[in-house]
């Protein structure tokens, strides 16, 4: 605890379907793995909590295009596409948060319908560091919810990449996170998908 604040790391949705070759691949999605692995190791070495969120959808959900939603089928619970990327560090001390379980909700945020806020408070965490996939959806919503739950947030720009349905979605997401009170750390152009 270098700065005296109790910290936790939240690794958002680094799953096969969001990486190249997956059904909803984010360009350069695997580029987040190395910086996140470094942080996972550092946090665990200091005995600070690490959380991995995962999209964990039912096969039928309004989140998918076939049922009126926005997205192609991805991260259906128990399928290979929903598994964490094989290069992402695994460790029994890491807490896994499954989200997007509700068939009537998108469940972008790691806090939406999960125990994450309660678990962070139980660990007396004051500050969360957030990275993963994708900048403009699940990372953004997780960051905004962390702020509204009262946590300080460092958004790890080197360790996130956007979907960018519109080419400036990632850049707008960065601005939205900053305006809400997050500290943006690292390369914003990478986080926005513009480099
Ligand atoms: Zn999803």
Q: Rough shape?
A: globular
Q: Helical amount among residues, as a percent range?
A: 25-40%
Strand content: 15-25%
Average per-residue pLDDT, rounded, comes to 96
Query: What ligands can be seen in this structure?
Result: zinc ion
Taking the sheet with the most strands, its summary is: 6 strands, parallel
Unreliable stretches covering 5 or more consecutive residues: none
Going by helix content, strand content and strand pairing, the class is alpha/beta
Number of strands: 6
Rg, nearest Å: 15 Å
Distance between the termini: 33 Å
Main sheet: strand order = 3-2-1-4-5-6
The ordered string of helix (H) and strand (E) elements is: EHEEHEHEHEH
Query: What's the helix count?
Result: 5
Protein described:
- There is one protein chain.
- By secondary structure, the protein is an alpha/beta fold.
- It has five helices and six strands.
- The protein has helices at 33-45, 116-122, 135-148, 169-179, 188-191; strands spanning 7-12, 50-55, 95-99, 127-133, 152-161, 183-185.
- The chain is globular and about 50 Å long.
- Bound molecules: zinc ion.
Report a brief summary of the structure.
The chain is of the alpha/beta class and about 200 residues long.
Keywords:
195 residues; 5 helices; alpha/beta; 19% strand; binds zinc ion
SSE blueprint and pairings:
Layout: E1 7-12, H1 33-45, E2 50-55, E3 95-99, H2 116-122, E4 127-133, H3 135-148, E5 152-161, H4 169-179, E6 183-185, H5 188-191
Parallel strand pairs: 1-2, 1-4, 2-3, 4-5, 5-6
Helix pairs in contact: 3-4
Bound molecules: zinc ion.
Zinc ion binds at residues 55, 57, 63, 71, 74-75, 100.
């Amino acid at each position: 605890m270098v700065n005296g604040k109790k910290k936790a790391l939240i690794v958002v949705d680094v799953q096969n379907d969001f990486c190249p070759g997956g059904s909803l691949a984010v360009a350069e999605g695997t580029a987040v793995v190395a910086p996140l692995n470094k942080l996972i190791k550092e946090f665990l070495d200091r005995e600070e909590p690490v959380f991995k969120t995962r999209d964990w959808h039912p096969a039928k959900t309004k989140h998918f295009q076939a049922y009126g939603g926005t997205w192609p089928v991805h991260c259906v619970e128990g399928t290979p596409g929903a598994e964490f990327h094989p290069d992402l560090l695994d460790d029994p001390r890491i807490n896994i948060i499954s989200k997007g379980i509700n068939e009537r909700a998108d469940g972008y945020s790691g806090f939406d319908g999960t125990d994450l806020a309660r678990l962070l408070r139980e660990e007396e965490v004051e500050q969360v560091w957030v990275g993963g996939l994708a900048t403009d959806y699940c990372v953004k919503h997780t960051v905004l919810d962390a702020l509204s739950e009262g946590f300080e947030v460092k958004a790890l720009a080197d360790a996130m990449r956007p979907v960018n349905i519109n080419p400036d979605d990632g850049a707008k997401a960065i601005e939205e996170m900053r305006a809400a009170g997050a500290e943006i750390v690292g390369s914003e152009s990478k986080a926005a998908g513009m480099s």
